[in-house]
Input
Amino acid sequence: MKTANVLIIAEHDHQNISLATRKAVTAAASLRCFSSDLSIHILVVGFQCGCVAQQAAELTDIDKVLLVDDVCYQHGLAENVSKVIKDLASNYSHIFMSSSTSGKDLLPRVSAMLCIEQLSDVMEFTGLDSVVRPIYAGNATVEVKSCEALMVATIRSASFEPCGISEQHAEQEMLKISHPLTHTQFVSMQTSNHERPDLTTARVVVAGGRGVASKDGFLLIEQLADTLHGAVGASRAAVDAGFVPNDYQIGQTGKIIAPDLYIAIGISGAIQHIAGIKDAKVIVAINSDPDANIFSYADYGLVGDLFELIPHFIQQCE
Ligand SMILES: Cc1cc2nc3c(=O)[nH]c(=O)nc-3n(C[C@H](O)[C@H](O)[C@H](O)COP(=O)(O)OP(=O)(O)OC[C@H]3O[C@@H](n4cnc5c(N)ncnc54)[C@H](O)[C@@H]3O)c2cc1C
Output
């Protein structure tokens, strides 16, 4: 493989760079054990997002920031942002983005445009061209080697710590690349508008399952989360029952999280749910069934009725 040059695609909201991007930087920097002259560039694509480029320049391990700022990227749609990455791809040996909703939208598109097989959910690099990633809903890991000249990979945020902030600022280069949308037009966007921490990066997550029984029951989960300054999550059963919106879902087909503290309430612990919480540092389970599978994974378990226990819990925490 040629000298390693990594391009990280920054995820941002036009104001702030995401924590998941900082984790992708840590992942890229881990390749320095295999190539001491590895250089790491970060690409910021958007509109009026110079402040994001500035934040990117302050991240440790970044050698250069590439900024593509044009009104045609104001909605950050994969349809045209992918074309920018394709234009730049030939300068790089690795292209990374976090395994977030945006990364899962953008990088497969880039891979297809470049006729390259993408590696998903990288947990560790074992060489410049080899990685460890989860299979079977996170129940096993596999080491795979990329045979492509360019590795395009999404990075599993739960496996890496965020990179630090440096006193030394990386060089910034403004690129003039414009790909106006042609086949797709932006119509509208709906976002969940809550003040709690982001589920994927929160230090504390309180989640409810089918056992919470109703939308009103979830108020108790939210109250506990607020007391602990945490995020609210849910099992798929709770989402399917309409207790909470689907961006709360944790698990194989939801979000993969790695908080310091995860509290599972009225959740049985199906393998698809466990796939999303395995990396939590401390797991607490509250369930009325002493044989619930969640207790096999919990550091602390409380057997009992959540509607009796949680109010006591909240009272103790306040
Ligand atoms: C392809 C596929 C992908 C999937 N992806 C996901 C995923 O990403 N995330 C996910 O979560 N699931 C996923 N699932 C679904 C998963 O298999 C389970 O069905 C789901 O996780 C169950 O949710 P639950 O634990 O809330 O519900 P249940 O399994 O019904 O458990 C409810 C629990 O609440 C307890 N309980 C009831 N009342 C009380 C009370 N008053 N106090 C205390 N405890 C109480 C019960 O003892 C029980 O253990 C997926 C399934 C498939 C097939």
In short: The radius of gyration is 21 Å.
